[in-house]
Structures are given as C-alpha cells and as structure tokens.
Design a protein that fits this description.
By secondary structure, the chain is α+β, with helices and mostly antiparallel strands. The protein has two domains: 2-7 and 17-79 and 173-287, Cytochrome c-like domain (Cytochrome Bc1 Complex, Chain D, domain 2, Orthogonal Bundle), CATH 1.10.760.10; 83-167, Cytochrome Bc1 Complex, Chain D, domain 2 (Orthogonal Bundle). It has helices spanning 2-18, 68-73, 83-94, 104-108, 117-120, 134-145, 156-167, 183-194, 204-208, 242-252, 263-274, and strands spanning 31-35, 38-42, 45-47, 58-60, 123-124, 131-132, 215-216, 219-220, 231-233, 238-240, 285-287. The strands form five sheets. It has a three-stranded mixed beta sheet with strand order 10-9-11. Strands 1-2 form a two-stranded antiparallel sheet. A two-stranded antiparallel ribbon has the order 3-4. A hairpin with a 4-residue loop joins strand 9 (231-233) and strand 10 (238-240). The structure holds heme C (2 copies).
Length: 288
C-alpha cells in the first residue's frame, strides 16, 4: 500500500516537472574539431549498443542537446576553455613532484602513451580485480610510485591530469567491456541506474531514458552520456568529471548521494559508459 502511494507520488512529481514542457529533437549537426593536428570528426550519434536495443535505436552525445553557442565552442580547440586545464595537466605531467623527484614523464614519456585508456575505462584491472576509473590509475602512481598522498578525486590536480589523459583518446570510440570480470560491476551500475532515489523518487532512467529531448527547468534533457567527460561547464566555470556530474544529478532529486570515486559511482560510470559504447570520446567537452 505504502509502496504504491510512493510510486504514484513520484509519477505525479515527474509529470508536474515535465507537464506542458516542450520537446525538441537533438540538434542535427556534425562535430568537426579543428585541432593543432588538423580537423577530426567525432562520432556523436550511433546505433544503440546491443544491450540497449530494446530501449533506444540511437544514442546521442550530450553535445547535440546544447545550444548553438555551446556546441560551437567545441569545434575549435582555440575556443574550447578546457584547453587551459589540459595545459596545466601537461605542466604537472612534466614536473618532478614525486618524493624522489619522479615525474609522470620520466616513466611514461609523452602523454600520448596514454592514448586509448579513456575509451576502455572504467575497466577491471587484470592484476588486482578492482574496477578502475582513470582517476584510480592516476592515484595508484601518485601514491605507490611517487610516494605522495593521493590527489583528491575531484580536486584540481586530478582534473587537470584527467583532462590531459582523456584528450589523448579523443576521437576513439568508447568501448568498455561489460562481460567477464566486469559483469558484476556492470550489473551493480545498472541497478543503481534504475533505482528511484530521493524525495522526488527519480531514477537516472526517469530523466535520461524516458524523457530525453524534453525540457526540464529550461534544460534540454540529454541521454546522460559520459563520452564527453571530463568537460568544461560554463555554469561552473571549470572542469566537471563524470563522478561529479552523478553527484549533482542525484542531489537534484533531493537524495543523499554516493561519494564521488566510491564503489557505487564507479560501477554506475561503467554502466553509463556502456550505454554510450559506439560514441567518440570527446576528450574534453563543453556544456552549459
Ligand atoms: C616510477 C615510474 C612511474 C611514475 C613516476 C608514474 N607512473 Fe604511471 N605507471 C607506471 C607503471 C609501471 C604503470 C603500469 C603499467 C602497466 O601496467 O602496463 C603505470 C600505469 C599508469 C596508468 C595506467 C595506464 C594503462 O594504460 O593502464 C596511468 C593512467 C598512469 N600510470 C598515470 C601516471 C601519472 C599521471 C603519473 C604522474 C602523476 C604517473 N603515472 C607516474 C609507472 C609510473
Ligand atoms: C530530475 C532529472 C534528472 C535525473 C533523475 C538525473 N539527471 Fe542527469 N541530468 C539532468 C539534467 C537536466 C542534465 C543537464 C542536461 C543534460 O545533459 O541532460 C543532466 C546531465 C547529465 C549528464 C551530462 C551529460 C552531458 O553530456 O553533458 C550525465 C552524464 C548525467 N546527467 C547522468 C545522470 C545519472 C547517471 C543519473 C542517475 C544517478 C542522472 N543523471 C539523474 C537531469 C537528471
């Protein structure tokens, strides 16, 4: 009885929030980016991956749901505000900041040696069996190989480095594994995705699956993909990671949120990434 009442309440709230709101298709547009090395075309829409076939025909990057001005900022690295943070990441990469004077560059050479990693993470580390996001890999070197305290998972040092490393995979197609050792984490992430949280009792799916294309508080709802992360958010005038975005979205449902970088949101990132398998990593996106 109690349960049923709650469900009705949730539906009513969501109905209210979205009642009479406009719907618009994702913008018909192509993302060609002018970089130092020439123009590259990113895959921002693709057929849905197999595990999502009964839900969507087509998946879309969040880029398609932003206005013209915001989309334009991602067409040229010169206009992309994220590049300031990428540059800071490169300085940090080259700096001898370890206890014994180690630098990332000293062991890894150029950042281009990181190409591909962002497209296949979150992934289960073969050696430890742990689910790893890029932040975890960075911190394992910071602590175990440089003798430092771990960097805050949403701190500036981490976000600068994450931006630099993600950019190395720009244009590569997101392709996270969901089977084998990844399967239990993927199932956990999927369960979180469909669970209704908070006073508003809304799940990720209520907004990003059932209602994408609609406007909520003048925001054009996307499918909530993570291929564009980390990204520069105009509203925050800074970089936002996928983990941070999850915290923000759950807070918006007036729920207690899981911790950024914690096991629940890492599993969720794996699941959400798998919903975007087939889209290009944007390296560093721009959103409003
Ligand atoms: C003392 C040498 C050393 C230093 C210094 C070091 N790393 Fe590493 N790093 C490694 C080794 C060794 C691995 C494991 C490589 C492997 O398993 O293939 C690794 C793995 C990684 C990975 C995972 C790569 C992959 O493809 O799986 C990332 C990301 C990374 N390091 C980033 C950094 C960053 C960022 C810094 C500087 C803050 C840094 N590392 C400093 C030696 C180092
Ligand atoms: C009440 C509706 C609502 C719920 C519930 C919600 N979100 Fe969102 N989310 C938004 C809005 C609004 C935005 C900003 C516009 C957009 O990109 O959809 C957003 C943006 C995002 C983005 C950024 C997409 C991009 O390309 O910039 C991701 C990723 C995301 N949400 C994931 C999630 C996940 C995962 C959950 C569940 C934990 C969730 N959201 C729950 C409303 C919601």
């Amino acid at each position: 009885m109690q349960l049923r009442k709650h469900t009705l309440a949730a539906t009513a709230v969501l109905g209210l929030a979205l009642a009479g709101t406009a719907f618009a298709d994702p913008a018909e547009d192509t993302l060609e980016v002018t970089t130092d090395d020439g123009v590259i075309t990113l895959v921002t829409t693709a057929p849905a991956p197999d595990h999502l076939k009964d839900v969507f025909d087509t998946i879309w990057s969040g880029w398609h749901f932003r206005d013209d001005t915001t989309r334009d900022m991602q067409r040229d690295d010169f206009d992309n505000p994220s590049m300031v943070f990428v540059d800071r990441g490169l300085d940090s990469w080259n700096e001898a900041q370890g206890k014994g004077g180690e630098s990332c560059a000293g062991c890894h050479q150029g950042p281009e040696t990181m190409a591909g990693l962002r497209a296949v993470t979150p992934r289960v580390d073969a050696k430890t069996g742990k689910l790893m996001i890029v932040e975890d890999y960075i911190n394992s070197c910071v602590t175990e190989r440089m003798g430092l305290e771990p960097w805050g998972v949403t701190g500036n040092k981490m976000k600068d480095m994450l931006s630099l490393i993600s950019l190395q995979s720009r244009g590569m197609v997101q392709n996270v594994a969901i089977d084998g050792p990844a399967a239990p984490f993927w199932e956990q992430g999927k369960e979180i995705y469909y669970t209704r949280y908070g006073q508003l009792e809304m799940s990720c799916a209520n907004c990003h699956e059932d209602n994408y294309g609609k406007y909520i508080r003048s925001d054009h709802l996307s499918q909530g993909q993570v291929n564009g992360f980390p990204l520069y958010r105009l509203k925050d005038a800074g970089m936002v990671t996928a983990q941070q975005r999850f915290v923000g979205c759950v807070r918006d449902t007036r729920a207690e949120t899981f911790k950024a970088g914690g096991p629940e949101f890492k599993a969720l990132e794996l699941y959400v990434a798998s919903r975007g398998n087939g889209l290009s990593i944007e390296g560093v996106g721009v959103r409003h």
